[in-house]
Amino acid sequence: MSQASPSASHRPRPAHRRNPTWTWFPYVVLAPMMLWFAIFILYPVVYSLWTSLHLWTPALGAASPFVGFKNYIDLFTIDPFFMTALKNTLRYGLVVTAVVVPLGYFLAFGLRQIKQVSNAYTFVYFLPYLMPATIIGILFGFFFQPVFGTVNYLLGAVGLPKPGWLQDPRLAIWTVATVEMWLRIGFATLITYSGLAALPPALFEAARIDGAGTWRIFRSITTPLMSRVLVFVSAVTMITALQTFDLIYVMTRTGGGTGGSPGGPGTSTYTLALLVYLEGLQRFKVGPATAVSSMLLAMVLIFTIVQLRFFKAKWDYYQD
């Protein structure tokens, strides 16, 4: 007697085969970017770290003698410029970040209160960020010129003293930092404005129904919801400020239209990024220069990790 064939519901189904095109597609898409990253970012960083451990000279190149951590030790012991550059870099980065992030947040919050904000408003705030730092440095260098500069002219018109902004060692680095703040404020405003626009309106409507005012909503609802955006803006601003080179170089070299030297007057505006240029390309001390760049890289990584780890939000919200 023949055996009945199994029903269709009990027949084994063929194993699902993955489409080979979709299996390799992510790797094909990412390959150019990863190749670019390996050639132009990873390799220079590794080679710079390797060079910092050698007494590198142009004549010997890759055959330069290995000296270990001597270049790093010399930075803290015998280098006359490193500690000044380190202190200036820390102060510069912290002050610029501490001003740009809150000010950009409040400007963005003010824009959100305007009922009809056109794209022209956001473009005006973001325009300085699009301008080359070299052009901005030359322009503001003449603004702060001690004799015919616009700033001192306005101060003299109201009877106030006329400081030597870029000639005074006590004011030079803060003058450049002020220009840096003006340059970066547009990025902070635009990003935080976009973050505010993405917040769920239902939370604010519920708070107003409960009788919360503008300040209470800003302090108890808006700011906690914006914490992730503010951490991102803070990290990007800090990274940019710690690595600033072109603005400091241009403004101190022009001396506010009176002439000067990069990092002047004296060493009052020396930063780590500027020291890398001066040591490596002007004094041809490639080993110490790469050691300074490695220290700057470590500083950027430390500040970024601290900001992302200790100031991140402890919550999530979902919007359908």
Write the layout of secondary structure elements.
Blueprint: H1 20-52, H2 70-77, H3 82-113, H4 119-130, H5 133-143, H6 150-157, H7 172-197, H8 201-209, H9 214-225, H10 227-242, H11 246-254, H12 272-282, H13 286-310
Helix pairs in contact: 1-13, 2-13, 3-7, 3-10, 3-12, 4-7, 5-11, 7-10, 7-11, 10-13, 12-13
Question: What is the assembly state of the chains in this entry?
Answer: single chain
Q: Given the helix and strand composition, which structural class is it?
A: mainly alpha
Distance between the termini: 62 Å
Q: What is the arithmetic mean of pLDDT?
A: 85
Instruction: Find the CATH topology.
Output: MetI-like fold
User: Number of DSSP strands?
Assistant: 0
Low-pLDDT residue spans = none
CATH class: Mainly Alpha
Fraction in helix: 55-70%
Radius of gyration: 27 Å
Order of helices and strands: HHHHHHHHHHHHH
CATH superfamily: MetI-like
Can you count the helices?
13
Overall tally of domains = 1
Which architecture name does CATH use?
A: Orthogonal Bundle
Structure commentary:
With 320 residues, the chain is mostly helical. The chain has a single domain (80-310), classed as MetI-like (MetI-like fold, Orthogonal Bundle), CATH 1.10.3720.10. Helices cover 66% and strands 0% of the residues. It has helices at residues 20-52, 70-77, 82-113, 119-130, 133-143, 150-157, 172-197, 201-209, 214-225, 227-242, 246-254, 272-282, 286-310. It is globular, with a radius of gyration of 27 Å. The mean pLDDT is 85.
